[in-house]
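Good morning,

Both structures are done.
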Amino acid sequence: MEQVRCFIAIGLPDEVKAGLKQLQAQLKPGGQTSIKWVDPYSVHLTLKFLGSVDGDKIDPITAAMAEAVQGVSPFSLKVEGLGAFPNLRRVQVVWVGVSGEEDKLANLQQRLESNLAGLGFIPEKRRFTPHLTLARVRDQVSAGEREALGQIIAETKFEAARSFPVEAVNLMRSQLTREGAIYSQISTAELK
């Protein structure tokens, strides 16, 4: 049985991705190769990472998504705020925050978790923190370099809050390559 590495996510409009590209250009320290910048045109809002699943689970996952979005009307989110996990002194992940109708987003994410648990996917124990990943810092980066990147993040002005509608959730395939992950949409469930 073919294994498919996949996740459920909300796609972003091109104008939001263009804004993320501009932001990345501001943040990139010159000549830094130990930071893996995410292609801004493949950035998405992940709701649930599923990992490698059997190909025959794709249809049940799609059905669970369709059930989770029933009765959920489209809503609006916005991209704003800049930060790092776990913090600005030990940067591992550079992210942009997501705000707006967060209660509707959290409800949708919980409905997905609940429906997918019925298919054997273990619910996430950590609290859902909506964010868009801009970069990951490689393991070999020194503490000083991490702190210097944190300083750049702290000093970068990111004021251009961009709103976007959430009208669907997508089941995405993630194919890992040397150049990075390649994402493709497998199925979608529209909010009505």
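Second structure follows.
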Amino acid sequence: MIKIETRERIAGIELARLDKKNALTADMYAAMTDALAAAESASGVRAILIHGARDCFTAGNDLKDFLEGPAGASEALRFISALSKVGKPVVAAVGGPAVGIGTTLLLHCDLVYAAPAARFQLPFVPLGLVPEGASSLLLPMVAGYQRAAELLLLGQAFTAEKALAAGIVTEIVPEETLLERARAAAAAIAALPPESVRLAKQLMKRPIAAAIAAQMAEEARLFAERLQSGEAKEAMSAFLEKRKPDFLRF
């Protein structure tokens, strides 16, 4: 479900569960966290590339996996926390759906390339949850409060153009060249002096590193509480059963 390939100094992390639109399970999060750690420690790796297929990045968390126990949420937090601390540059290629953590993880990447048909969504509030991955801190910073509030509170799907305007995406490129463009960018970074790259990224991330960690911890605490709430259970059950949730009783 996660394919790992290192070539030409680039560690590739591919989401490969296309029959489920790359919906992420606890095992997939664990595999990606391990892949990040391996890439960080490998002297021959100078950049990391995260991608799915040209027409599918990820549908977000596998809700059935989340409803079955705490492992999904725990591994998701471990992954996004690790991603936020990666010292090597991270490039992402986004085609098709990028739902939930599929969007929030992009806020921790250095370069993000999206296909014109990419669709982003932060559906935490509609699912009775709260934002995660420090998105409640980072998105207002890059997009401005009102734009972030629209995306995080309403939780509706939005286009690649809107993601570009919000500062989530670096560039929109044709779907047929999406993966090639992202890999070319990763290769360009990998060809630069590695210590200068590492230090430059460190300098840009350093002023808000502590705030990111603190916000992520608070989000995780509230997220865990909300997973047990009647609102969240009803919202997620309604989603899986393809019906409208009934919040009037809460």
